[in-house]
UniProtKB/TrEMBL annotation, chain A:
Stored Pfam families: Cupredoxin_1
Keyword Ribosomal protein: no
Superkingdom of this protein's organism: Bacteria
Domain EfeO-type cupredoxin-like intervals: 17-124
Protein name according to UniProt: Plastocyanin domain-containing protein
InterPro entries in the cross-refs: Cupredoxin, EfeO_Cupredoxin
Origin species: Hymenobacter caeli
Keywords carried by this UniProt record: Membrane, Transmembrane, Transmembrane helix
Transmembrane segment boundaries: 6-25
TrEMBL record, chain B:
Residue stretches spanning the membrane: 105-123, 135-152, 173-192, 204-222, 357-377, 389-409, 705-727, 733-752
Protein name, UniProt field: Cu+-exporting ATPase
Family in the record: Belongs to the cation transport ATPase (P-type) (TC 3.A.3) family. Type IB subfamily.
InterPro entries, A to Z: ATPase_P-typ_cyto_dom_N, ATPase_P-typ_P_site, ATPase_P-typ_TM_dom_sf, ATPase_P-typ_transduc_dom_A_sf, ATPase_P-type_domA, HAD-like_sf, HAD_sf, Heavy-metal-associated_CS
Compartments it resides in: Cell membrane; Endomembrane system
Protein's UniProt keywords contain Transcription regulation: no
Taxon lineage: Bacteria, Pseudomonadati, Bacteroidota, Cytophagia, Cytophagales
Membrane topology summary: Multi-pass membrane protein
UniProt domain HMA: residue ranges: 9-75
Pfam families: E1-E2_ATPase (PF00122), HMA (PF00403), Hydrolase (PF00702)
PROSITE patterns (alphabetical): ATPASE_E1_E2, HMA_1, HMA_2
UniProt organism field: Hymenobacter caeli
Record keywords: ATP-binding, Cell membrane, Membrane, Metal-binding, Nucleotide-binding, Translocase, Transmembrane, Transmembrane helix
Length: 125, 761
């Protein structure tokens, strides 16, 4: 093994480790919902290659409105799926799409794009 | 201004921005003070304002201004319409995106073809001698740049956006793969000396880069085209809605108004051939309506005053008026659309594995690609290791297709729930669809499911009598009665007289509870009732007639004697009749290997009779309403996967207990809630449709998942060069791109095959 091979090996393994850490183990942006005076918990979510914030905490038993603003035209994010709430919604580009739901049970409920690539979660407490 | 136009009108406004009861009173005050307003009532809870105003002095626009004056807003009305409009706007946006995509694809193809041709020419040694490679590479670079920056821009932008969110998607793979090939080529073009000094030929991969982008875009174009078809059934459902309604104003004049302005209690006129605008109850007139779009029932349904009509159904030849009972999101059509939408958003349990895999798919593939690169670099001969490592790296990234996995289940569910709705089978969620496929036993509630659920005349025995004349006498008596059996008799009698001659008059009518009825018709005393009535009146039936009655009773029928002038002259047999389609549907279920079991509250005799009639061998008789769920449990304890088919409220617990509940005949709302599948068409053929649809859908999903898993599981190792040591095969990244483009389209196309679903036979 020559120097170049050693460098490539070390760099490659390092990069692979970084990819695994970055996508699977690093911390996510979490936000708690803000309750409006009407009792509705509202959160704004920006959709651009992902959901930010991607983890949303809400309280159980109170209506929730998630305002998804799709800040891109990329077709990956055009559909929103929340299977636990039977929601499939088209998100028009550069518009806010409110998604209303009522969380009845505590738990972690994932939401994804139409193909399951972009991911977020609704944490009901 | 004439007094007519100054009539008071009522408007309902959806108020936005009220956060407290005080806001509501502020809005109310502002509205009340507005000119022309007679009264205003604002409900904070429903966020609605109901305003009565004089038409000449105020209008919805001035009312809106008054609300805005108070610092609040008025939302646009009629949610179901706005849903349709929202859909249209979305479609427009999608069409625009499709045009753009096609343009990007066109540019990529055009340039890729040139780049490819030039690169191929270089393989010709005679040409290679004459052309300056350096200059050619610059030329190729110039041709590839637009492909990258215009056609492929979205991949890089999306990959970067995703990266910032710690998310990786298909674009990440394409961007990294083509990016690596391009950057390597760029370096080989700009500083070839760096490569040659290390004994590596400075090859460029511009053709690879351009071709991959063109092929992936081709895949996207095909995918988008196919995807719009998955929701075609939904769109046609939404498109069923009428656009306008002909409303009768209080003054009596008829005005065409847009559907969203139709309000509760409005009177709407429907002329022959017109669509019914919304749900209501017929007030006068009669007609036959084609309800196939909602129920799947192809025969028009006769309707008259008092009968409900539903929006989007088609009037045939008659004309009628109806009073609006439901608008917007409350209508049956809107509820069906909502149900289908919900089902399409739900997750099938079978999808779980694919979901888990796709969650970790892209980063895992990136890691595999990196390891591939490292292995090739370490193991291949020094002179060729860099190009081999690079080609394999790019091929792994490009061939991996997370989309096929992600599309496998949802697209099939979308097509089949839409297809179900077209056939009057409303599927609540994907789980119900999956359960229907596993069903081994179908438990049918007899009444209203196998049978019509209402009594009908089945036999008429009148030896030596003029049947037509006798029916006239019977009908005259029974017309006065309110007993359900009497209604069945009258219905039958009317059907016997197509000429509809004026019915005979009955005088001195007496209803004798639990026994029958008596009256004088055409000067003769007529009795219609059971043996006790005859005994009371001192009439003894002839032995032959009594024997016939015993026969009918043995068939579980209700027997009515007819006596005229103190003589028992005839017998009428009444029973809940089996639907025409029941036997055939049950036979088809049995042909599919499904055990069909019946349960009923009737005595064993009746149960055996009906069961025999439709070919059922196993049944439960004398089941009390509360015991239905227990019977379901009993079957489940035998290890059966039970589908329960029922209609009434007292079926709800059994529907919920069953592995799959099917509510029949647009049933009651309660049954619909408890049921996984609702059959709009009120006969058993819907059960067959539901189970066949489920079987085909699950077959499609399994094919899709199998394909997606096998494709990725075999494609990635081949791209990594697994076959190279054995056969010397290495997958070209361009072939990888073609495979990837076709894989997701294959899955989609397979799902779309479900559109051809039809019930055989």
């Amino acid at each position: 093994m020559d120097t170049a091979a050693v460098i490539v090996t070390v760099a490659g393994l390092g990069l692979a480790a970084f990819v695994l850490w970055y996508f699977f183990f690093s911390a996510r942006q979490t936000a708690s919902a803000v309750s409006s005076s009407g009792g509705v918990q509202e959160v704004s979510i920006n959709v651009k290659g992902g959901y930010s914030p991607s983890v949303i905490e809400v309280e159980r038993g109170k209506p929730v409105t998630l305002n998804f603003y799709r800040d891109e035209e990329n077709s990956c994010s055009e559909e929103l799926l929340m299977p636990d709430f039977s929601i499939r919604r088209d998100l028009p580009a550069f518009q806010t799409t409110p998604v209303e739901l009522l969380p009845q049970v505590a738990g972690r409920f994932e939401f994804t794009c139409g193909m399951g690539m972009l991911r977020g979660a609704l944490v009901v407490k | 201004m004439s007094p007519a136009t100054e009539a008071t009108e009522t408007a309902t406004l959806d108020i936005e921005g009220m956060s407290c009861a005080a806001c509501a009173s502020a809005v109310e005050k502002s509205l009340s003070r507005a000119p022309g307003v007679a009264s205003a009532l604002v409900n904070f809870a429903t966020e609605k304002a109901t305003v009565q105003y004089r038409a000449g002095q105020a209008s919805p626009a001035t009312l809106k201004a008054a609300v805005e004056n108070a610092g609040y807003g008025v939302a646009e009305h009629a949610p179901s319409i706005s849903a349709a409009e929202r859909g249209a706007a979305l479609d427009q946006q999608k069409a625009l995106a499709y045009q753009k995509l096609k343009r990007r694809f066109g540019v990529a193809v055009g340039l890729a073809v040139i780049v490819m041709a030039l690169s191929m020419l270089m393989l010709w040694p005679a040409l290679m001698q004459r052309v300056n490679t350096q200059w050619l590479n610059y030329g190729l670079l110039l041709l590839t740049l637009p492909v990258l920056l215009y056609s492929g821009r979205e991949f890089y932008v999306s990959a970067w956006n995703g990266f910032q969110h710690r998310a990786a998607n298909m674009d990440t793979l394409v961007a990294v793969g083509t990016g690596a090939a391009f950057l390597y080529s760029l370096a080989a073009t700009l500083v070839p000396g760096f490569f040659t000094s290390r004994g590596i030929r400075p090859d460029v991969y511009y053709d690879t880069t351009a071709t991959i982008i063109a092929l992936i875009l081709l895949g996207k174009v095909l995918e988008l085209r196919a995807k719009t078809q998955t929701s075609a059934a939904m769109k046609s459902l939404l498109g069923l809605q009428a656009k306008t309604a002909r409303v009768v104003r209080p003054g009596g004049q008829e005005v065409d108004v847009p559907l969203e302005q139709v309000q509760l209690h409005d009177l709407v006129v429907v002329r022959p051939g017109e669509k019914v605008a919304t749900d209501g109850v017929i007030t006068d007139g009669q007609s036959a309506l084609n309800e196939s779009m909602l129920t799947g029932e192809s025969l028009p349904v006769e309707k008259q005053a008092g009968d409900p009509v539903f929006g989007a159904t088609l009037n045939t030849t008659g004309a009628f008026r109806f009073k609006v009972t439901k608008v917007g999101a409350d209508t049956l059509l809107a509820q069906i659309v909502q149900l289908v939408e919900d089902a399409q958003g739900s997750r099938a349990p079978i999808q779980r594995l694919a979901d888990k895999v796709s969650a970790v798919f892209v980063p895992t593939v990136v890691v595999i690609a990196i390891l591939t690169f490292v292995l090739w670099f370490d193991l291949a001969p020094v002179a060729t290791r860099l190009p081999l490592a690079l080609v394999s790296f790019v091929a792994v990234l490009i061939i991996a297709c997370p989309c096929a996995l992600g599309l496998a289940t949802p697209t099939a569910i979308m097509v089949s729930t839409g297809k179900g709705a077209e056939n009057g089978v409303l599927i609540r969620n994907a789980e119900a669809l999956e359960k229907a496929y596993q069903v081994t036993t179908v438990l049918l509630d007899k009444t209203g499911t196998i049978t019509r659920g209402e009594p009908a005349v089945t036999d008429f025995v009148a030896p030596g009598q003029d049947a037509g004349q006798l029916w006239q006498l019977v009908a005259a008596v029974e017309r006065q009665s309110e007993h359900p059996l009497a209604a069945a008799v009258v219905r039958y009698a009317d059907a016997q007289r197509p000429d509809r001659a004026a019915p005979l008059a009955a005088t001195g009518f007496r209803a004798i509870a639990g026994k029958g009825a008596a009256a004088t018709v055409a000067g003769q005393a007529v009795l219609v009732g059971n043996t006790r009535l005859l005994a009371d009146e001192g009439v003894a039936p002839a032995p032959a007639l009594a024997a016939r009655a015993a026969q009918l009773l043995a068939q579980a029928k209700t027997v009515l004697y007819v006596a005229v002038a103190g003589q028992a002259v005839g017998l009428i047999g009444v029973a809940d009749t089996v639907r025409d389609t029941s036997a055939a549907a049950i036979q088809r279920l049995q042909a599919q290997g499904i055990e069909v079991v019946m349960m009923t509250g009737d005595n064993p005799q009746t149960a055996a009779q009906v069961a025999g009639q439709v070919g059922i061998t196993r049944y439960f008789a004398e089941v009390l309403p509360g015991g239905k769920a227990a019977k379901v449990k009993e079957l489940q304890a035998e290890g059966k996967v039970v589908a329960m088919v029922g209609d009434g409220i007292n079926d709800a617990p059994a529907l919920a207990q069953a592995d799959l509940g099917l509510a029949i005949g647009a049933g009651t709302d309660v049954a619909m809630e408890a049921a996984g599948i609702t059959l709009m068409h009120s006969d058993l053929s819907g059960v067959v449709t539901a189970i066949e649809l489920s079987r085909q859908t699950m077959r499609t999903i399994k094919q899709n998942l199998f394909f997606a898993f096998v494709y990725n599981a075999s494609g990635i190792p081949i791209a990594a060069g697994l076959l190279y040591p054995f056969f010397g095969w290495l997958l070209s990244p361009m072939l990888a791109a073609a495979a990837m483009a076709l894989s997701s389209v294959s899955v989609l196309t397979n799902s779309l095959r479900l559109r051809g679903f039809s019930v055989k036979g």
